[in-house]
Amino acid sequence: MLVIYGGLFFALFIRIFYIQSSGTVNGQQLEARAAALYGKDAVLTAERGKILDRNGGIIAEDTLSYRLVAVVNPKATVDEDKPRHVIDPEKTAKVLANYISMEESEIYKILTKKLADGRTPYQVEFGVAGRSISHELMTAIKKEELEGITFASDSTRYYPNGPFASHLIGFALKEEQEDGSFHTVGKMGLEYTYNKELTGKNGSMQYESDIFGYLLPNSEKMVTPAENGDDIYLTVDKTIQNFLEESMTDVYKEYNPESMVAVVADPKTGEILAMSQRPTFDPDTREGLDSWNNIVIESVIEPGSTVKTFTLATAIETNNWHPNAFYQSGSYTLYGDTIRDHNLRGWGQITYLEGFQRSSNTAMANMLEYIGNDTLIDYFKKFGFGQKTGIDLPGEASGTLLTNNPIEYVTSSYGQGSTFTPIQLVQAMTAIANDGEMMQPYVIDKIVDSATGDVVKDEKPTVKGNPISKETAKQVREILASTVTSEAGTAKSFAIEGYDVAGKTGTAYIPRTDGSRSYLTGNKNNYLYSFLGMAPADDPQLIVYVAVKKPKLEATEVGSQPVSEVFTSVMQNSLKYLNINPEDVAQVETTKIKDYIGESAEGAKIELENAGVTPIIIGDGGEIIAQYPEKDLAITKGSLVFLKTEGSVTLPSFENWSLRNLLVYKMMSGLSIEIVGEGFVESQSVSENTVIGEGSPIVVQLRTPEETYSAPPIEEETSSDGEELPQD
């Protein structure tokens, strides 16, 4: 027995010595097997770049969400009285089906599936249906107290403003890749066009853990940091965009048109300050998404009489404008084709000036005899018609200038037959507003490296041409202003108190879609009504184009009413917001901020409180290392000033904070704050004076004043002035 056991011990010793010296068993490297068993790779997800307005307001960003995870391996449970894995897959599947977009049977399959070798996985997930879960939904699922159901922090694309320039911004979604990972991918609009710039590069972390995923003692972590995507700043002004969205929503509900489109632009630069259309959709839920087309740039229209603006400009520039000469209104016949004025019978012998103010089609036809067909088309091309503007958006249409027969030149002079895009009309109007200098429209202000703050791409205004002289532009503005102020003008309903408006109405036939090359007729609900205007008339600061297709009008209502409701509201509010009329803007008391960096937080706090502003200390106090606002900026009394110091962060009360202040605090503190809603802070998930640890999630709920206070609707009087009906 001694010899036998001694032999076995000696054989075992030789085997152990061989394994230690060679590191292999049956030809397999033990170190590699151990690394495969205990070595883990974790993905550090890169944040998608933000989309912001011209002032840094958030339009789209990644925000905190949750990922649904089910622990299914019984080994996870140590104490049977406190199970940590799914005990009842059938019950769990039935409950979860009430919360996520997945059938109960599919959930059950996932909860009971096996690995290829027949073993039970430690945990399972639920694909797209189990991702991007909100804090509210997570809380609701947790209340069900399902065994084995847990959540991991995740990120989702968040659009805090709801339906806000939705066809311009588009949306991005989490998509499963071939390797099983999930990436946020732009599917539409700017999110799609600039997906490469917005998409960051994921990092990784390598470490050793046990079978339950816990980090092994003394194991080393190797971290490759994630690189976040670039931030894109737009020319869009969030405040003006909100003016536009609210007004269009009100008109859309009241008149129920087939579609609407509107653009607000700065004529001095070509910057697009607002852009919207109806129907629209919510980019968070995609609710209401019927058409993927951005009508402003991708769809062509026959705009009607707004085009008369550029026929007039051509006549003046070529010395063929005779405002006091008379012509016979009513009808005009060319080679057997007859066009008529919108009242069919005309107004008798009237001057060309009155004819323009009344939006007479026959005035344009008679003027064209002086201008000449080829000259008109040449100037239309100088105004950019029949060609793309070059706006920094994909899918732009060019439109078509019809020149096949003589009558097409005539109809083109007043905006029928030939096709245009809304953005072409806006670009052409910049030449009228900007003393003859035509500016190319654009929506991207700059692209910024989110890590370094370096500007990757910086857009500047581009002059597209000078189709007319300064003198001609000034004269056109004066005549356009007369359509608003003259008794004969069709645009009287577009007047704004305190501002002089210049512009041109449009009422256009809508082509049939049956291929018959004819137009819808019948009643006043079958037309495209529009207005292309600017203000102040002597030195325009804004151009606004509004078009409403097939509104449902009452018997006493005219087509200009829904258009004017949008135009006057947006133009007046925007001009006041931009402080165009300083005398209309109330004076508020301000104080200038000094440079506090390097000073004591306590001393700065006392000084700021004495100045009438509220300091917010981020950190333990001590030396200030960053501040917002920066030095020399003037702020109003009662504003918040953020002072960052080293050390742990104690949470303040966010009560009544604006979204902007909350975003500044989130950026400077580096805390994981999930912002829900818009407006002002109503509640926070972590109470004030709590010391926050790294990575601790905080949910802050905001509400708009409209959600907080419900007021009865205000009935507005409407006027029938400015009616314009199409020629027969």
TrEMBL record:
SUPFAM superfamilies: beta-lactamase/transpeptidase-like, Penicillin binding protein dimerisation domain, Penicillin-binding protein 2x (pbp-2x), c-terminal domain. It is found in: Membrane. Residues 587-647 form the PASTA domain. Signal peptide: none annotated. GO terms for biological process: cell wall organization. It comes from the Bacteria. Residues 702-728 are annotated as: Disordered. GO terms for molecular function: penicillin binding. CDD domains: PASTA_Pbp2x-like_2. Keywords: Membrane. The keyword Ribosomal protein does not apply. Residues 714-728 have a biased composition (Acidic residues). GO terms for cellular component: plasma membrane. Belongs to the transpeptidase family. This is Penicillin-binding protein 2B. It comes from Ureibacillus chungkukjangi.
